[in-house]
Amino acid sequence: MSQAIKEPTSNLLHDPAGLNSAPAAPDTDPVVNAEPGTSKKASASRLRLTSILFVLLIGVWFGLGYLHYSEQYLTTEDAFINGHQVQIGSEVSGQIQSVPWQNNQTVKQGNVLFTLDPTPYQVAVDAAKAALDTAMREQDSAMAAIGTAEAGLQQQLAQAQLTQDQLRRLENINNKQFVSAQDLSNAKSAVAVADAAVNQARATLAQTKATAGAPGAQNDRIKSAEAALASAQYNLSKTIVHAPMSGRLANYAIEPGQPVNANQTLFSMVATQQLWVDANFKETEIASIQLGAPAEIFSDMYATHPFKGRVASVAAGAGTAFSLLPPQNATGNWVKVTQRVPVRITFDDTDTAQFLPIGTSTTTRISLTPHPHTFWQSVWGVIGLGAVVSSPHSTPTARSAPPSSPLLPTQ
Fold it and tell me: Which residues pair with 248 in a beta bridge?
């Protein structure tokens, strides 16, 4: 007991501050006091950092691939489908007799759209036919009159010849002093009368020919009657209105018995073929667009089905240049605004174009290269492995048929 007390006392005497004394050994095992989750947290942190770097690397890789892919195209959402429109009406006036269609139906070229009451026009045709028959009879009468006038002329010529012969005989006898002066004077008067009759017969023949006109079908009266008949028949044919093209009816709201005027617009027709897209691109992009460049049209109606097309033309001016009131930038506070220029893109397949109503929106993409790379080719091309993915132009693929639309009415 006393020995145990002396040892710490002696230590305090040699080292009062306790600086040189070793710390007391802990009573527990150091392995037991260490934190067990420290190494696991470090491993998790390293794994998390590696994953983030990997995801960032993949994102940069795909981002560069998409950048290279998008540089091959010009894309705009300011694009609309357009097509031919025809205003339909009747060339003659009358009352509508039959209406065989309904609004928004599809018709083919040559189909009867509606008919007018043909009664007044049929009457006009009958009257024109009667007038033609009358003109032909008048022509026959005129030709007969010409024949009569010619016969009269021949008769007067013969009479004149007879009087002249009589005068010559009397003159020969007069030389022998056997004819009186009175008989010779009467013979000369008869010759003058015969000559006057011949001149009158010739004038009558000329007047008859002038009145008759040209013979046969070249006669003016006959040609006029034939023209009147053709006009009446044309007007009669226009009481039946045919479709000038294949398309869909728009604003078809006519009814039987409705009176219409000549050349009055009744409804419209919209073509279902030879459609095109008017895509408005920025003026800074126009220089890179080539005529005939391939394009893809993504209709908002069929977002998963691309329609193929080609650049047909570029407008001669920006859209604002042809507006009703073009802007006048003559003030000092003018601000430059990038204009858009319409580019017309025609469809390669007009059969699929019939599913597209005009005026609907599209997303249009024009290829800047003849054979653009696919997205995966662009992605692998970032690391120099673009040849691993085959080009879609290397092997032809069948185009999928466009989906049928429930909005299209059936005939």
Answer: 106, 270
Amino acid letter, residue 410: T
Indicate the SS3 state at residue 136.
helix
pLDDT above 50: residue 399:
no
Dist CA 148 CA 170 (whole Å):
33
The answer to whether residues 363 and 298 touch, using CB atoms and an 8 Å cutoff, is yes
3-state secondary structure of 53: helix
H or E, element range at 81: strand 73-82
> Residue 130 corresponds to which amino acid?
A
- What is the helix (H) or strand (E) element at residue 56, kind and residue range? helix 38-70
Task: State the burial class of residue 325 (Cβ atoms within 10 Å of its Cβ: 0-12, 13-18, 19+).
Answer: exposed
The letter for the amino acid at 137 is R
Q: Are 79 and 360 in contact (CB under 8 A)?
A: no
Query: Predicted confidence band at 48 (pLDDT cuts at 50, 70, 90)?
Result: confident
The tally of CA atoms less than 13 A away on the side-chain side of residue 197 is 19
For residue 267, list its beta bridge partners: 88
Name beta bridge partners: 276: 82, 346
Q: Which two tokens stand for residue 99?
A: 């209406």
Give strand pairing partners of 308. Answer: 296
Strands (E), 235-393: 240-242, 247-250, 259-260, 264-271, 276-282, 294-299, 306-314, 340-347, 361-367
CA 142 to CA 207: how far, in whole Å?
11
Mean per-residue pLDDT, 160-189: 73
pTM over 0.85, yes/no? no
Q: Name the CA dihedral angle for 176, 177, 178, 180, rounded to a multiple of 10 degrees.
A: 140
Sign of CA dihedral 133, 134, 140, 146: negative
Within the chain, what is the greatest distance between any pair of CA atoms? 225
Residue 352: pLDDT band (50, 70, 90) is low
Residue with tokens 């017309």: 344
Asked if residue 204 lies in contact with residue 152, where contact means CB atoms within 8 angstroms, the answer is yes
107 CB-near residues (< 8 Å, 6+ apart): 101, 113, 243, 246, 247, 248, 249, 269, 411
Residue pair 258/75 in contact (Cβ under 8 Å)? The answer is no
At 182, list the tokens: 């009175």
CA distances from 270 to 81, 313, 338 (A): 12, 22, 33
